[in-house]
Design brief:
The complex is a heterodimer of chains A (348) and B (379).
Chain A lengths: L1 H28 L7 H14 L7 H39 L11 H18 L6 H25 L3 H24 L3 H11 L8 H20 L1 H7 L3 H6 L4 H23 L5 H13 L4 H25 L8 H23 L1
Helix pairs in contact in A: 1-3, 1-13, 2-3, 3-8, 3-11, 3-12, 3-13, 4-5, 4-6, 4-11, 5-6, 5-11, 8-11, 12-13, 12-14, 13-14
Chain B lengths: L5 E10 L2 E7 L2 E2 L4 E5 L6 H8 L7 E6 L2 E2 L5 H7 E4 L11 H6 L14 H13 L15 H14 L4 E5 L7 H18 L2 E5 L3 H7 L2 E6 L2 E6 L1 H4 L2 H8 L5 E3 L4 E3 L9 E4 L6 H9 L4 E7 L5 H7 L2 E5 L7 H13 L2 E4 L9 H9 L23
Parallel strand pairs in B: 4-9, 4-10, 7-8, 8-9, 14-15, 14-17, 15-16
Antiparallel strand pairs in B: 1-2, 1-3, 1-5, 5-6, 10-11, 12-13
Helix pairs in contact in B: 4-5, 5-6, 12-13
Classes of the chains: A mainly alpha (348), B alpha/beta (379).
């Protein structure tokens, strides 16, 4: 029985990885310029095997440019940020021991958003360049401050549903202040801000991807190192402490990692909704186990797949107009959350 | 006499900064079971939570194996002490085997993978609690009794030298109460583990403990062996029993007797009368019982429930005096019930009593006969 369940879990992970690959290829081919599989293969193999910037056919160069400059960074961003959000959600759910916790719903993404907005306005107002590192730092700061508020509330309020309401209110407050700031910004900056604030993977550059990649992969690795105490924590704080987990250190690390991951996403793609709640929930049921190592892998792959899928829809459904990624994730993610709430309340 | 494995040195416990109980000095040897008893809210859980480091100590220190707990790392503490508390473990998709395996946490490496020895220990712990059939089932979908056994297996699997349990059998039915305590006793005998626990079930505490500590409000009222502690006046005072009575030697309580002049005279003995006493009590009919020997098993029940008991010294035949006293009371009762079928040497005079009350006798009154009408005795 044990062998079968771990085989089943590994199989699920392989399927998820396959989905990510498939969706990546699909994303490369779809868009305002549709690229066939053969075209993609010709262009990619041409560049890998000969590394010539000008190939025999001028059309190939354009295909390569599209793939390399526009689509690939975007796909990598969707993979990294989708995975980061899902993992962040899973970490929060472990901490609060509640499936309704997530960075968006608890207002942490909104806090990060506010901080980034203010940083952007400040820098653009002084004519300074807005680098990725600055964005992440600002977002991290904002996420931590929001997290601080949430923890203060959690200290007084034992009921998780009320905590979520507090988080939603916090989200509204941050959004309101952000809108306030945007109103007084210069016209040139507003367009940038608006695009960013509805959440989008467009305009992601390789420089962004490099920073994103470093932060996300390092954070997720740290999360994997915490898999053992996470497993113990699933039995509750009392039993975790009794087997030797330093609860204080563990919780601080969990919160920092979760905030860093969701801040990273918000810094580049704005606040993206529901990935943090919906994906871990679905992955849990697919895997049939909550072993942290498997869950972390599953959430990362699941989040990546989900965001790739939503980005595809955001880009192509009303082409050339792009939908905000947050709207699409909400469209697919919210029903999952509703389903989950109904099922769990049915159980009592 | 070996030195105590575990002891507290003037430990003060409480919540926040307010001390609840001060200067607690407990000590436990290996292979000993120490039980905390006391009324609700007395502080038993507070003491236990402070010992397992869930609550901060407000004063004093706790020593395990000669080392102060403050000087130990979490892992060192985990290698020596494990717990079974009242907290609910809300797991999802976790099998019972995985829950038990969590006890190996202090022994496994960075990623927590279980080695051959760990798997063997898990299996051994499961076998000890008779939980092998539960091993692959979802922990969240088994009954409370089964869950408690699995949590106990988890604590055993940690290979502790001291196990701390907070009301381990409170939510369980009688079968599981006996099972869990049985497993604990076997563990103590086999592995010389020290056990510290709190129990509400006084009858079970009396049977299983080597040492009993009475916690009451803001102090440790008394401590001693079960023979010293489980005496009626001690328990009455500890729990503040005002209504009803407590029979400490046998370990159970009785409710308030019906007040009034006895209307039924019950001739009992050898335990046959117990069901009759309880039946009459349920119907609210005051009764007298006699003549009962003080060493009779039903004597404490009669003493608790009857308006009047005519007793005879242990091991002596029923005396003339007792007989006359009983006859007088019998004359004043409107009914007589005789539960005894055969009379022996010691209660020969009760046969005469039965003769006396022949006209008023209710024949065939027994627990099998629920339809006997005593309603005329109820006003």
């Amino acid at each position: 029985m044990k062998k079968r369940s771990s085989f089943h879990a590994v199989l699920t992970l392989v399927v998820l990885a396959g989905a990510v690959l498939l969706l990546s290829v699909w994303n490369i081919s779809c868009g305002s310029v549709s690229l066939g599989i053969r075209e993609i293969w010709k262009s990619v193999s041409g560049h890998i095997f000969s590394w010539q910037s000008v190939s025999s056919y001028p059309g190939d160069e354009m295909v390569w440019r599209i793939i390399w400059d526009i689509r690939l960074p975007r796909i990598l961003a969707a993979v990294l940020l989708g995975g980061a959000l899902a993992v962040s959600g899973f970490l929060l759910q472990t901490f609060f021991a509640n499936p309704i916790a997530g960075p968006f719903v608890l207002g942490i993404s909104s806090g990060a958003k506010l901080a980034v907005c203010l940083a952007m306005l400040l820098l653009m107002g002084h004519g300074a360049a807005v680098t990725s590192a600055v964005l992440i730092l600002a977002a991290f700061g904002g996420a931590l401050v929001s997290m601080g508020f949430v923890l203060l509330a959690a200290g007084r309020v034992k009921n998780m549903s009320i905590l979520v309401i507090c988080g939603v209110m916090l989200g509204y407050i941050c959004s309101a202040v952000t809108d306030f700031a945007v109103t007084f910004a210069e016209d040139a900056n507003i367009v940038n801000l608006h695009n960013w604030s509805v959440g989008s993977f467009s305009g992601i550059t390789w420089e962004n991807v490099r920073v994103m990649g470093a932060v996300v992969l390092v954070s997720v690795s740290f999360a994997f190192l915490m898999a053992k105490p996470m497993g113990a924590y699933q039995l509750g704080e009392v039993y975790a402490r009794s087997v030797g987990v330093n609860i204080r250190r563990f919780c601080i690390r969990l919160i920092l990692l979760s905030s860093l991951l969701s801040a990273c996403v918000t810094a580049f793609a704005g606040p993206v909704s529901f990935v943090g709640i919906a994906v871990p929930h679905v992955v849990k049921h697919l895997l049939g186990t909550t072993k942290p190592v498997l869950m972390l892998s599953g959430c990362f792959l699941g989040g990546a797949a989900f965001c790739l899928f939503c980005d595809l829809i955001a880009r192509t459904v009303f082409s050339p107009t792009e939908l905000g990624i947050s709207s699409v994730t909400a469209l697919f993610g919210a029903p999952v959350v509703i389903c989950m709430m109904l099922r769990s309340s049915g159980k009592g | 006499m070996s030195a105590p494995y575990f002891f507290t040195d003037h430990m003060t416990v409480g919540y926040g900064r307010t001390p609840l109980i001060r200067d607690i000095c407990l000590h436990i040897r290996r292979g000993q079971i120490v039980t905390l008893i006391g009324p609700n809210g007395a502080g038993k859980s507070t003491i236990l939570k402070s010992i397992i480091c869930q609550l901060k100590l407000l004063g004093g220190s706790v020593y395990l194996d000669g080392i102060s707990v403050k000087d130990m790392t979490e892992r060192q503490l985990a290698l020596r002490m494990s717990v079974v508390m009242t907290d609910r473990a809300r797991t999802e998709f976790m099998t019972c085997r995985e829950v038990v395996a969590m006890g190996r946490y202090p022994y496994t490496g960075l990623m927590g993978t279980l080695g051959q020895k760990d798997q063997e220990k898990v299996q051994e712990a499961l076998e000890l609690v008779h939980g092998e059939e539960l091993a692959d089932r979802d922990f969240a979908q088994i009954s409370d009794g089964q869950r408690q056994r699995i949590l106990l297996a988890r604590a055993i699997c940690q290979e502790p030298e001291l196990i701390v349990l907070d009301e381990p059998v409170s939510y369980l039915d009688i079968r599981y109460k006996l099972e869990i305590l049985d497993i604990l006793k076997m563990l103590v005998r086999r592995k010389q583990v020290a056990v510290l626990m709190s129990l509400h079930e006084l009858d079970l505490a009396q049977r299983i403990s080597d040492y009993v500590v009475c916690v009451e409000g803001s102090t440790i009222r008394c401590a001693g062996t079960p023979e010293e502690i489980f005496r009626t006046p001690v328990i009455r005072r500890l729990y503040g029993i005002t209504r009803g009575s407590y029979c400490a030697e046998l370990g159970y309580g009785e409710l308030e007797p019906v007040k009034g002049d006895p209307q039924v005279f019950v001739i009992g003995g050898g335990g046959a009368g117990i069901f009759v006493y309880r039946r009459l009590w349920r119907q609210g009919i005051p009764f007298a019982a006699g003549v009962l020997h003080e060493h009779d098993v039903e004597y404490p029940v009669a003493a608790a429930l009857a308006s009047l008991v005519i007793s005879q010294e242990a091991f002596e035949p029923v005396s003339r005096k007792a007989y006359e006293q009983a006859a007088k009371v019998l004359a004043g009762c409107s009914r007589v019930i005789c539960c005894v079928e055969t009379f022996g040497t010691m209660n020969a005079r009760n046969r005469e009593l039965a003769e006396l009350g022949k006209e008023k006798m209710i024949l065939e009154y027994s627990c099998q006969e629920p339809c006997v009408d005593l309603s005329d005795l109820l006003h």
